[in-house]
Amino acid sequence: MIERRKIGTNTAAAVAIAFMVACGGGDSGGAAGGDGLSGNVQTDGSSTVFPITEAVAEEFSLLHEGRTTATVGMSGTGGGFKRFCSGETDISNASRPITDSERDLCAASGVDYIEIKVALDGLAVVVNPENTFVDCLTVDELKRVWEPGSTLRRWSQVRQGFPDETLKLYGPGTNSGTFDYFTEAIVGEARASRPDYTASEDDNVLVQGVEGDRSALGYFGYAYYIENESRLKALGIDGGAGCVKPTPETVTSGEYSPLSRPLFIYVKNAALAKPEVREFVRFYIEHAAELVPQVGYIALAPAEYQAGLTALGQASGQ
Fold first, then answer.
1. How many C-beta atoms lie closer than 10 Å to residue 67's C-beta?
2. pLDDT tens digits, residue range 135-144?
3. What does the mean pLDDT of the chain come to?
4. What number is the average pLDDT over the span 220-227?
5. Quick one: which of 41, 175, 221, 259 could link to 76 by a disulfide (CB 3.0–4.6 Å)?
């Protein structure tokens, strides 16, 4: 994992004081001492958002000396929403917006929530470092590779002049928000994909697969590429305006189109009645701009984090 510095002592102390005020002197129903906050926050969902929430959870636990912690699951965006809408978790990590069917499931279960944007990310399309014949693919070429019913089995079928080598594909599983986003952006329909590829909800499995396969082509979150860029080769994408490689600048500007996306957390309104959940979410938003780049993602503009704090305050009645 990427090395991450801890939040400074002065910052932590200031946040601790703010927590004491917000909690009315520590009325959390938990252990005494410090700000009195204790308990566990249940989160699950996107493997892409996982490193951000994990980083926040570690810092939050340190601040509260381990009395208040967060459990961070990684069942994919779709799997996370299933648990969230059935009332099993407080927070759902998502690499795409909630779908109509998931919204209906939450409504049927009486689960109201707020959506908070926490970062920006790009999807990286990658090949093995020994691949020297391709540096860029067009959206149309990617579509022909990945669309349902695709008969492309060899690189020579992708573009004239490519070698007659077997094309081996790696990508996220169907519970992943990355799968949903990629298929909608590239194929034109969410969840529409050829099934004959090596799939995993764990991006590290995909990294290892592409690294170990000279004929590989795969895709996953840009942050995982950055973490493993010495082991992989990222391709540029031509969405119609020329070849663009993913960088923090091209993702932020939207130039890396159509594979730039926002990342979210969804918070159950009822869970905000628990001080540990409310303060964890507040801590998440207040420190995302610092922690997000440290785990390889792109921070939002300050106004967007302020909008998240405003939404949190309205949902929690503060």
1. 20
2. 999 999 999 9
3. 89
4. 92
5. 175
Torsion angle (degrees, nearest 10) of CA 267, 288, 275, 100: 0
Pick the CATH number of 122-260 from 3.40.190.10, 3.50.50.60, 3.90.550.10, 3.40.50.150: 3.40.190.10
Domains 9-119+264-316 and 122-260 share a fold: yes
Fold of domain 9-119+264-316: D-Maltodextrin-Binding Protein; domain 2 (3.40.190)
Name the 3-class secondary structure at 263.
strand
The structure tokens listed for 181 are 């986003």
How large is the average pLDDT for residues 246-260?
94
Considering only 5-14, 116-125, 274-283, 294-303, which range has the smallest mean pLDDT? 5-14
